[in-house]
Specification:
Residues 14-208 form the Metallo-beta-lactamase domain. InterPro entries: Metallo-B-lactamas (IPR001279), NDM-1-like (IPR050855), RibonucZ/Hydroxyglut_hydro (IPR036866). It comes from Actinokineospora fastidiosa. The chain has 227 residues and is an alpha/beta fold. It has a single domain, classed as Metallo-beta-lactamase, Chain A. The protein contains seven helices and twelve strands. The chain has a six-stranded mixed sheet with strand order 1-2-3-4-5-6. It has a four-stranded mixed sheet with strand order 7-8-9-12, with no helix packed on it. It has a two-stranded antiparallel ribbon with strand order 10-11. α6 runs antiparallel to α7 (216-224). 44% of the residues are buried.
């Protein structure tokens, strides 16, 4: 799905990823589950570019449906993988993900239906360790948004009015909502509100669900008020 001339969304069976274009350079934000490499390569080709244009891979967190193909894509041309220090061990296969706190029957049913079917991720080295507050080469500010995982991050492009939330925020049937399967639900709510407080966000891109394509700051604040 081409969102703008610079922004493309890739949908997978579970979750999604994004390509951000700066001239001849691409940034891949999340990678989808293991085995998503061919779909990513096809999306890059659809932009008239080669996979060598992927200059960096930024992971919003270390779950298998977002970091699963990181090792595969990194192996193509050595694009450095960026991840928050609290999720580095998860991405590198050194520890399992934290157990989520499932707060409702529907969430437990959803977890049982989806998560066992996500293939395990191959361990992937993390080349750039993030701590929050950095401004990356393509202009994105890294915001620590723990709660879904300890090392979840959002990426904010203030000059372009774009926010990538990872799984801290989701969309379902037209409703913006707190992401599910959170390791610390109360902390996840705080992280949602931190992102809703950002000014000038026009486009919000989620780890699951349709993006908000206009007026995202107002939409996020309305949703945050209901938490």
């Amino acid at each position: 799905m081409r969102i703008t001339e610079r922004l493309t969304m890739l949908r997978f069976a579970v979750g999604q990823a994004y390509l951000w274009r700066d001239g001849d350079d691409l940034t891949l934000i999340d990678t989808g589950p293991a085995g998503s490499g061919p779909a990513i390569a096809a999306a890059v080709a659809g932009l008239g570019m080669d996979t060598a244009a992927i200059r960096r891979i930024v992971l919003t967190h270390g779950h298998n449906d977002h970091a699963g193909a990181a090792a595969e894509v990194r192996a193509w041309h050595g694009a450095p993988v960026h991840a928050h220090h609290a999720d580095v061990a998860l991405v590198q296969g050194e520890r399992p993900p934290p157990e989520p706190v499932l707060t409702a029957d529907w969430e437990r049913e959803l977890f049982a239906a989806i998560v066992p079917g996500v293939p395990p991720a191959a361990p992937c080295p993390v080349d750039v360790v993030l701590r929050g507050g950095e401004v990356l080469d393509f202009g994105a500010r890294v915001i620590g948004v723990p709660g879904h995982t300890p090392g979840s991050v959002a990426l904010h492009l203030p000059e372009d009015g774009v926010l990538f939330t990872g799984d801290t925020i989701a969309e379902h049937e037209g409703r913006i909502m707190l992401g599910v399967f959170n390791s610390d639900p109360a902390l996840a709510v705080e992280s949602f509100r931190r992102q809703a407080a950002l000014d000038g966000v026009e486009i919000a891109c989620f780890g699951h669900g349709d993006p908000v394509l206009a007026g995202a700051s107002a939409a996020l604040r309305t949703a945050a008020a209901d938490l």
